[in-house]
């Protein structure tokens, strides 16, 4: 492949040395620079497929559950001085949020959960795929995937929390939905919207779903730093394949 050819990081070959040429989007470039990825840096794209497992973490506002997609966006500066994607941490490891490897409508969600830049964060444990059996407005019963349950913010008994932390049988008022317009429209089509009353009836195991093209992309810099990029960030990063 000619050296002069520019391609997106998403489409670039694995195992080759890649030179980061440009990053489309000022905000994205600033966020990625905080993690160590910027123009002129040489990286190698990994063939590794990242399992998007949900994580339970602890921040300044208490415990929170992050869907695999949310967790894959967070870069952590560990207490030993090293940096690593949140997905690479072991239970008990802690540090502070260094930045996000995406510009995302979920930025507000991270702030509400107490996981914005420089906030303390501890990985507590990895969670198996779950489905939340839910009664909506005393009329409709559905199973909500954990990734969706983590994006529903509301109030139960005067306490604000994620729906995935709700108590079985208690009334839960939806205050806000996390995510961009497509995600919110999808949730609204299920009856999940601001003001809705949810009652958690039970939780059961769910199947792991392969996300295909939506897999995050792992890259490694020359100094050994591993960075996990959201697929859209990888599409917005142009690279050259070095000889």
Automatic annotation (TrEMBL):
GO molecular function term, any single one: transition metal ion binding
Domain Ferrous iron transporter FeoA-like intervals: 7-78, 84-156, 161-241
Transmembrane segments: none
Matches recorded under InterPro entries: Fe-transptr_FeoA-like (IPR007167)
One of the Pfam families matching this protein, by short name: FeoA
Protein name: Ferrous iron transporter FeoA-like domain-containing protein
Organism: Dethiosulfatarculus sandiegensis
Upper classification of the organism: Bacteria, Pseudomonadati, Thermodesulfobacteriota, Desulfarculia, Desulfarculales
